[in-house]
Amino acid sequence: MSCLVASTYNIQHPLVVLVSNYSIGQAINIIFMTMFNIFRRVFVGHLSLLTTLQLLNVSFAEIGASQTNNLGFKSPNEESLNRIGELEPSIGFYQSIEMVENSLIFAKQSKYQEIEVHQSKFFGKMLVLDGVIQLTERDADSYNEMMAHIPMFQHANPKRVLVVGGGDGYVLKEVLKHPGVEHVDHVDLDEDVIRTCEKYFPQWGDAWKDPRTHLHICDGAKYIRGLPDNYYDVIIQDSSDPWIAGEDGVMIPLPSGVLYEEEHICQMYRVLKPDGILNIQAESFSVPTSLEGIITWRKTMEACGFKRSRYGSIHTTSYPTGQIGLLLGEKNPSASSKMSSILRRHKTIANSGKKTSYYHPPLQRGCFEVPLWVHDSIYGKEDTSDLLCNIDENENVEDTSMS
Fold first, then answer.
1. CA distance 206 to 127
2. pLDDT at residue 43 above 80?
3. Average pLDDT over residues 139-163
4. How far apart are CA 356 and CA 145, in angstroms?
5. Ordered DSSP codes for 15-81
6. How many percent of the chain have pLDDT more than 70?
7. Contact 304, 285 (CB under 8 A)
């Protein structure tokens, strides 16, 4: 047909042109290269289409997956994709992390929860409790360093510290980096989590070997009720979520909810020394029910007697929405550290070989700078001029922590 068309319209066929203008060898070489380029374009186009279809298939599979709740239970579609994820039904948000094949390294049903350690494709090993990602090797530093160092540096001289929860040991490890610490009580309910992390996360799972650490396997709220007044300089509560929220916004309480009740927060206030500081895990402001919780917990802190309470933001990729927060309560803000002291102390830690990877002194103030709509939701029309830590107004303070 092509010859007929060429003849009809008196157009020379390309082969005739080649043979007439080039030698046979040159013509064959040009024909070969032309066919190769055509094949390459067709192949690449097919591959791009195939890749696009595969991506669309993954997206449709995840979008169409029927998630049961936000406790991390995987759907059949997600099982086939080999991912572990979490749904936040109150905002219709879902994210997951891809695992390697045969990702399960360890699994055990403890008295309180299902414990799993998985190997992910890009985030290293992951600790998963009841189907919910607790930490990954790739970004565990962000949450845990902030939970530990914000209150520890805010206090002028913390010596006696209490850590409630945090069975993975990471917060405890960071607290122990402060050379002035003399005694740390660590209270956690599930000993199996601790033993699991000792074995599978040794980079921070050896914190319990430090002679300053005293481990108590018991209920945190009950333990605190039995303590004397004015006992600790700093309390860090690294607890799990106090509730789950459904699509209708109705909150379902979880066992850790007791750690956010007024009675418990007032008990922590009682056992803190006059210059004591409390820091608690405070969820993500991107979830409306959690934002309501932040507002409530802050009011509770003030009702218990804390003179200053503020919300700090933490970027953590593996947590839903990529953001979580802390709520810092101070009994006597005027006694808090000045920035020059924070810089010196942080440099001492770094020079001792215990350098942080996420926290640095600018975050001591910077984490409390939240988006305007979040600020207005939490503080309203309240005067927030005192919400930042003290600065040496008459000193030339510069960050030498990296030198």
1. 16
2. no
3. 98
4. 7
5. HHHHHHHS-HHHHHHHHHHHHHHHHHHHHHHHHHHHHHHHHHHHHHHHHH-----TT-PPPHHHHHH
6. 74
7. no
Q: How many residues does the chain have?
A: 403
Burial of 19 (0-12, 13-18, 19+ CB in 10 A): middle
Most confident range (mean pLDDT) of 27-36, 44-53, 274-283 is: 274-283
Active site residues: 238
Q: Which amino acid is at 44?
A: V
* pTM of the model as a whole: 0.78
CA distance 236 to 233: 10
Lowest mean pLDDT among 90-94, 335-339, 365-369, 390-394: 390-394
Helices 372-379 and 288-304 meet at what angle, rounded to 10?
Answer: 40
**Cα-based distances in Å from 188 to 195, 327, 347:** 12, 20, 31
Cα 240 from Cα 162, distance rounded (Å): 17
For residue 328, the SS3 value is: strand
